[in-house]
Amino acid sequence: MPKFESVDHLNEYRRQLRARRDPSQPQVLVCAGPGCLPLGSEEVAAAFRAQLEERGLGAQVALKASGCHGLCARGVRVLLRPQEIAYQKVTPDDVPEIVETTLVGGGVVERLLHEEPETHEICRHKGDIPFYRSQQAIVLRKLDVIDPESLDDYLALGGYRSLRKIFFEMTPDEVIEAVERSGLRGRGGGGFPTGRKWRICRDTGDPVKFVICNGDEGDPGAFMDRAVMEGDPHAVIEGMIIGAYAVGARRGYIYVRHEYPLAVKRLQLAIQQAREAGFLGRNILRSGFDFDIQISQGSGAFVCGEETALIASIEGHIGEPMPRPPYPAVSGLFGQPTIINNVETWANVPEIINMGPEWFAAIGTEGSKGTKIFSLVGAVHHSGLVEVPMGTTLRQIVFDIGGGIPGGKAFKAVQTGGPSGGCIPAEFLDLPVDYDSLQQVGSIMGSGGLIVMDETSCMVDVARYFIGFLYEESCGKCTPCREGLKQLKKIYEDITHGRGEEKHLTLMEDLCAVMASASICGLGQSAVNPVLSTLKYFRHEYEAHIRDKKCPALVCRPLLKYTIDPETCTGCLACVRECPVGAISGVKKEAQEIDQELCIKCGLCFEVCQFDAVRRE
Fold first, then answer.
1. What is the pLDDT of residue 341?
2. For residue 10, what pLDDT is reported?
3. Distance (Å, whole) CA 549 – CA 498
4. Which residues contact 602 (CB under 8 A, 6 or more apart)?
5. Contact, 387 vs 371, CB < 8 A?
6. Strands 27-31 and 62-66, bridge-based pairing
7. Is residue 118 exposed (0-12), middle (13-18) or buried (19+ Cβ within 10 Å)?
8. Nearest of 550, 560, 604, 612 to residue 582 by alpha carbon
9. Please, what is the Cα angle at 515 between 514 and 518, to 5 degrees?
10. CB of 88 within 8 A of CB of 106?
11. Pairwise CA distance, residues 18 & 155, whole Å
12. Which of 16, 143, 266, 340 is most open to solvent, judged by the fewest CB atoms within 10 Å of its CB?
């Protein structure tokens, strides 16, 4: 890879690169995203490599480990180009058949094709799969196309071409104006207008400024930023270069949690490649602009996703939030003006510059422009990464893209925005997903976690889980958050253990009001969302726990009661053998009985009974 001394040099290299590449060359792209790696994608790639070498096809077929293919529920995924044949659940044992049937014979391995769970439609090509058909990819568009460790792959698809435009055709103010006109809002959760934040920073006039990429993705079930950092790291770097030029920063940081070692590895490699190619460092492309990036690793504290806590962590202090104002755009890292955007926000910026702000603004809704990435997980057929235009309804995401609820169960709720988001019931399935609409029903966009729940979920238990998570992750600096979460956690333990009282519901609402208004940072302020949303939409479940001492969803173990139906029980003694406390007694071939005083509600008797004689209520 040469060091590019000018835009002309870069353009000529890109032209030569494209000329050397044959668009008809067979390619095998093995997903190496966060969903497929644990399922053995490296072993699948190794099997392909061995088969191609054995058959003498190593020079004719390009084998790549790509980023996330999105449909994580069907890993390991393999995409064969240029045919666009999409295989799923591939194992090393399947590789010889794929090579023989598809790469050599031109056919398909039917059993590895995607099948829709409800209609049983067989989809041969990626574009035929409903999961992909209903999406619009901007940030994710290159993840299953390029090798994330290859700068050549990124350049061949137009990578870093935005630098010519900003350095030689636009002033910093014009770059900021373009981002403002695009309507891009921060994708990290707050939704603050990105261009406005940049302008505030630039207008400070301070000669020393910083830009930071927040890659501290801590929401349970969320992996959007991880997939982008692992699958398209140069897009993040390119976006940061644009932002640094716009505000006048000379140094940037990418803050990544240590639980993402592959993201750290690929970002470090991408930064090294960008330096060697002349995209980072001094006098980039002879523009006179200097900028460099380094990685700072966090230790996994959820609160460090908050801007001021993240800054404290980079500075070497304990990751605790600070009161605002001043905001980081005015006084941030080391007391200097600092721009902080998350991974998805930075990755959108090059496309806005390349395609124009009007193109981006034409996507989405009036107040929420562009697309949004979600990690769709939970009680849904097709879990994975989803990118859709803002304003797409929950119904479209859950049923058209996600394939609906498995097992014929009914949809109950969807939780958006991570542990600080709200639980939205079925009556709002046609709600457009944008910043304002979600706030109106008591939830938030957050970074993009989207957890689907079916009728077997207990909404009291769901809220209890998230409050417990936030209690453990709170830094404890401010009293409203520290003590409020402690008290909410205790109340939920009482309610789910049969000790709940009517007064608890009013007390919870009072605690939430104080936390929302008096907590220092967004963790405490938004921690009330799972409580208030479930109280509002599922109050009857709280009342059943408190008044009837029952869990309607049969989830809260202390409120369950196990009995044995004497008419159905065959006396096989399977439940007797499994009971860990000897609470079940009876004679063989006669009905058994459970001693309710001894029963610990473990449910083993229910699980092992083959005759449905054990009842749970």
1. 96
2. 93
3. 5
4. 557, 580
5. yes
6. parallel
7. exposed
8. 604
9. 75
10. no
11. 9
12. 16
Q: What is the 3-state secondary structure (H, E, C) of 436-505?
A: HHHHHCCCCCCCCEEEEEECCCCHHHHHHHHHHHHHHHCCCCCHHHHHHHHHHHHHHHHHHCCCCCCHHH
Q: Cis ω on the peptide bond leading into residue 350 (within 30° of 0)?
A: no
The vertex-121 CA angle with 117 and 125, nearest 5°, equals 110
Task: Find the Cα–Cα–Cα–Cα dihedral 38, 228, 83, 126, rounded to 10°.
Answer: 80
> What's the gap between Cα 102 and its chain centre?
33
Contact present, 404 and 398 (Cβ < 8 Å): yes
Q: Which parts of the chain sit beneath pLDDT 50?
A: none
Helix (H), strand (E), coil (C) string for 300-339:
CCHHHHCHHHHHHHHCCCCCCCCCCCCCCCCCCHHHCCEE
If DSSP codes are grouped into helix, strand and coil, which group holds residue 446? coil
- pLDDT tens per residue across span 103-141: 999 999 999 999 988 888 999 999 999 999 889 999 999
Q: Using DSSP, state whether 36 is helix, strand or coil.
A: coil
Which two structure tokens, joined as six digits, stand for 329? 């755009």
Could you give the CA distance from residue 494 to residue 499 in angstroms, rounded to a whole number?
Answer: 5
pLDDT of residue 218: 81
pLDDT confidence of residue 301 = 86
From the list 385, 19, 329, the residue with the least C-alpha distance to 176 is: 329
CA–CA gap between residue 552 and residue 532 (Å, rounded): 19
Torsional class of 278: left (φ above 0), alpha (ψ -120 to 50), beta (otherwise): left
**Residues comprising the chain, all counted:** 617
Amino acid at 259: E
Q: Which two tokens stand for residue 285?
A: 């492309």
Helix (H) or strand (E) holding 578: helix 574-578
Q: How many CA atoms lie within 13 A of 148 on its CB side?
A: 32
Number of Cβ within a 10 Å radius of residue 419 = 26
410 contacts 399 by C-beta, under 8 angstroms: no
**3-class SS string, 2-16:** CCCCCHHHHHHHHHH
Residue 585 DSSP SS3: strand
- The DSSP code sequence of 13-43 is HHHHHHHH--TTS-EEEEE-STTTGGGTHHH
- Enter the tokens of residue 334: 């080391």
Strands (E), 343-464: 371-378, 384-389, 411-416, 423-425, 449-454
Identify the pLDDT of residue 1. Answer: 79
Which residue in 186, 159, 137, 146 sits closest to 350, CA to CA?
A: 159
At 189 the pLDDT is 77
β-bridge pairing 593-594 and 584-585? antiparallel
Helix (H) or strand (E) holding 295: strand 292-298
